[in-house]
Amino acid sequence: MSETGRADAFAALGPAVRAALSERGFSTPTEPQRRAIPPIAAGQHTLVIAPTGTGKTETAMLPIFDALVADDRDGFGALYITPLRALNRDMRDRLEWWGETLDLDVQVRHGDTTQYQRQKQAEDPPDVLVTTPETVQAMLTGSTLREGLEDVGYVVIDEVHELAASKRGAQLTVAMERLRELAGPIQRVGLSATVGDPGEVGKFLTGDRGCEIVSVDVTSKIDVEVVQPEITPADRDRSSELMTTPTVASHLRYITDLVETHDSTLIFVNTRQTAEALGSRFKEMGANIGVHHGSLSKSARIEVEDSFKAGELDALLCTSSMELGIDVGRIDHVVQYASPREVARLLQRVGRAGHRHDTVSSGTVVTGHPDDTLEALAIARRATDGQVEPAEIHHGSLDVVANQVVGLAMDAGEISARGAYEIVTNAYPFRDLEEETFREVVRELNSNYIIWLDEAADRIEKSGGTWQYYYRNLSMIPDEETYEVFDIASGAQVGTLDERFVVNFAEPGATFIQRGDMWRISEIDEDKERVEVSPIEDPAGEVPSWTGQEIPVPYPVAQEVGELRGVTADQLEAGAPSEAVAADLASRYPAGTDTIEDALGQIERHVESGAPLPTDDRILIESHGRTIVVNVAGGLKGNETIGRLLAALLGQQTGSSVGIDVDPYRIELEVPRGIRANDVREVLQTTDPEHVGPLLELSLNGSETLKFTLSQVAAKFGALKRWKGGDGVSLNRVMAALEDTPVYDEAVREVFHEILDIDRAQEIIAAIQSEAVELAAIGERTAIGTGGRQSGSELLTPENADASVIETVRERIQEDEVRLVCLHCLEYDRETTVKRVRDQPQCPHCESTQIAALSPYADDVVSALKAQDKDEEQERLTERAYRNASLVQGHGKQAVIALSARGVGPENAARIINRHRESESDFYRDILEREREYARTKAFW
Question: Which numeric CATH code is attached to 398-472?
């Protein structure tokens, strides 16, 4: 850029800042600096949207530093608010350098700041304070700090897109209004790498007071390729060594090749479980790749960040923990493992590669199955066209209102209810909040003794519970317990599960993926916060109940996948060879013909079957046995909504529960006998779209999802202590008591906001009924209908990898305690381990072989055997003991082993033995299957 261009960018800045620019080496401004500094320097509220690494922090702060240099304030001059819990060290260092150079005091305040430092900041406020949304909440209520806050003239909110879509952000918007009451009009500047709806986010930032939007084109500066690596013979050989599938072995090989051809690479995955699984396999391969995700300790994260930045690691495997601008040096390539699910996420992640001076950010999306590939293609195209998803702002969140009403009472000791309402509704997410709803929230707080409400005087005052409530609820992020997961086969700990998963999804028989393996839940102990699981040694055909914190694929992305299916199917049906169809698609989408042709294989097989093809404007219902699949490109939330509606209405018809499993392209129903595809068709064709919301609200009543959410919302209202999932009865009573309160209303709103998409479901059902969308049905499974099953098994062990599981079961049973009781004389009653039992047990007193192999705790059985006048229960126990002894008499130690397995009684033990397995492994495999069957059904016994 010419000196004229430089002068244009920095002309509004004073000599001290311009001198510092030269010292810092800012000879050429970046595009966001050139375009955004003038409006910020002019005092306008400004939203700056620009790629990571283009100097957004300096863009916002240079004109603010310039104003602070020329201004003599006693209190805080500016707040720099970041949502990162671990404040970005690089950003801190840069801001502190500017402060030292310009003789301005720049300090940090967050949860780890010492009490001494806090006291100093209160007594002698710095010019610039770098802090978090939660710390702002705490600062607003301190009497000395409030005096310092009266001087705040500028607030910069970093990563504003992240806050706009969360309750943390909704809470912060009210805090900004509270700060405005204290300090007067404040200039607000928002920074973000990606925003789908800048106008809305600008209103969110400013309270709809006008906002200059400076958007630097991100989409033309990314270069993304979608690749499904070819599986080579070497990959097949390596898959057993790495305990994974050939597909994943090809991914690992391809990614390591990419890492070797670049200086520094970030490898993004969508869940922590995937990060753990891939990380362990990279380690097995000897790859110089570190792992970074939110479950790691702070010290471990800092260590790996520093190692990567210093060039000691070739790549960093990470989750969304790396999206928000943590400084790890210059990145020259980004790998996204599997579809990123959203356009914003792809832009955010790939945007981390290639930084200053118009460098193009390069990235590769590595896919493993047709849905994944087509989805990644749709997202990559939409990214280059700038079609980013809008931020889902939490409008009218009532627990945030409750939280901030308490904050307003804390600020001044008392406030008029009308005044509090006006402050809250000045914040954009609450602009439409009705006054009566607001007053219901205040009454609820009053009834919970959190504040005092004098309705006659229209006054809200602090109460004895105000202080404790407020400081316990500075954050809108709910606290969740962690459950430890143990393998029942070995007794070893597998990992941990979040409370939300355990409450919403976990039940005996449910399956999930952790550390790259699939597990089936056997038992949940709520009191000990412990989940017992067994490994699934052959995952082929298994559908995980839960595969991690799934990022919801938006409706427009799913629709484009449906459109791609339709376009390519038309070409294939017209006789075009698949390679020609793939080449045509490759001319419009960023992938090679081999990758696209592989994804088209599923569509080609479907076309060859003659079944109608599900597309963006055709829904296909397919059925086989008790499984019905509705193929609809409705996105994850849309399909979740329709799936729950179908389950509720079909369940109501039959009086039986209907199981559902949902992905962005399919709704799979496990239905009771008597339900057919036509019943599903009828529900979709006759349900009034306007009734979708009320019907789902009714179906939510009593659900674990609503209970869990209600417990968290009620805690934010001060209405309920933390709820444990096992306390279902008492919580049901609480739910009934809260049903007509704002607590219940907010819990329903949150479930609808986070999990469901009522509007989209209504739109889809209306389109079916107007015949804008075709509804077809077929009495068999199709290639596309079953295609989603592959998506959850990408990191699972191969089918032949169960030998170690069987050996673990054998070792466990051999070490189990067993109680041997002679039924002939009842004199012999001895506990021992299974491995010490003789091949044919015999009583040492009477030499009878009529020996029962019982649990060590079977005192009730022994008492029943010895009882003279037996009651009905004792007769039953005695009969089972004799059946048990008969098996041992006939089959010796083999029967003792089978009877010692969990949940395997005499009948199941007899079935196992009667299979006459020649292989010991097959014998133990049958035992394991019976144990799993017991785990799945024990809750109904």
Answer: 1.10.10.10
* Sheet with strand 459-462: strands edge to edge: 414-416, 459-462, 451-454
Q: 3-state DSSP call for residue 219? A: helix
Burial level of 1, CB count in 10 A (0-12/13-18/19+)? middle
Q: How confident is the model at residue 513 (pLDDT cuts 50, 70, 90)?
A: low
Tokens of 785: 């209908």
Q: Check pLDDT > 70 for residue 793.
A: no
**Over the stretch 37-95, which tens digit does the pLDDT of each residue have?**
999 999 999 999 987 777 889 999 999 999 999 888 889 999 999 987 555 667 788 89
Structure tokens at 769: 């009924």
Q: What is the DSSP letter of 779?
A: S
Instruction: Give, in degrees to the nearest 5, the angle at Cα 590 between 586 and 595.
Output: 65
Three-class DSSP category at 391: coil
Domain residue limits, the chain: 3-218, 221-384, 398-472, 482-535, 803-940
At the topology level, CATH places domain 221-384 in: Rossmann fold (3.40.50)
Check whether 565 has a pLDDT greater than 90: yes
Cβ neighbors of 146 (< 8 A, separation 6 or more) are 139, 140, 182, 411
Burial annotation 318-334 (CB, 10 A radius, 16+ → b, else e) = bbbbbbbbbbbeebbbb
DSSP bridge partners of 778 = 622
What the block records as the tokens of 101 is: 């150079």
Distance CA 669, CA 647 (A): 8
pLDDT in tens, 316-350: 998 876 766 666 778 899 999 999 999 999 998 99
| Residues 375-405 pLDDT 10s | 999 999 999 998 999 989 999 999 999 999 9
* Cβ neighbours, 10 Å, residue 493: 11
Tokens standing for residue 293: 């995700």
Q: Please tell me if the domain spanning 3-218 has the same topology as the one spanning 221-384.
A: yes
Burial (CB count <10 Å: 0-12, 13-18, 19+), residue 509: middle
Is pLDDT above 60 for 790? Answer: no
Considering Cα of 35, then 40, then 44, then 50, what sign does the dihedral take? positive
8 A C-beta contact, residue 340 and residue 270: yes
Using CA atoms, how far apart are residues 795 and 516, in angstroms rounded to an integer? 5
Joined together, the tokens standing for residue 79 give 């707040």
Two tokens, residue 672: 């009771």
**Within 13 A of 31's CA, how many CA atoms are on the CB side?**
16
Q: How many CA atoms lie less than 13 Å away from 217 in the CB half-sphere?
A: 9
What is the distance, to the nearest Å, from the Cα of residue 42 to the centroid of all Cα atoms in its chain? 41
**Burial annotation 67-106 (CB, 10 A radius, 16+ → b, else e):** bbbeeeeebbbbbbbbbbbbbbeebbebbbebbebbebbb
pLDDT tens readout for residues 644-664: 999 999 988 887 778 888 899
Task: Report the DSSP pairing between strands 482-487 and 493-498.
Answer: antiparallel
Which residues, including other chains, have CB under 8 Å from residue 189's CB and lie 6 or more apart?
40, 45, 46, 47, 48, 60, 64, 154, 155, 156, 157
695-718 per-residue burial string, b: 16 or more CB within 10 A, e: under 16:
bbeebbeeeebbbbbbbbbbbbbb
CB-CB contact of 764 with 630 (8 Å): no
Return phi, psi of residue 928, to 5°: -60, -40
Indicate the residue type of 940: F
Domain 3-218 fold: Rossmann fold (3.40.50)
> Mean pLDDT throughout 717-741?
65
Q: Is 863 a residue whose pLDDT tops 60? A: yes
Tokens of 385: 């066209």
Tell the burial category of 872 from Cβ atoms under 10 Å away from its Cβ (0-12, 13-18, 19+). Answer: exposed
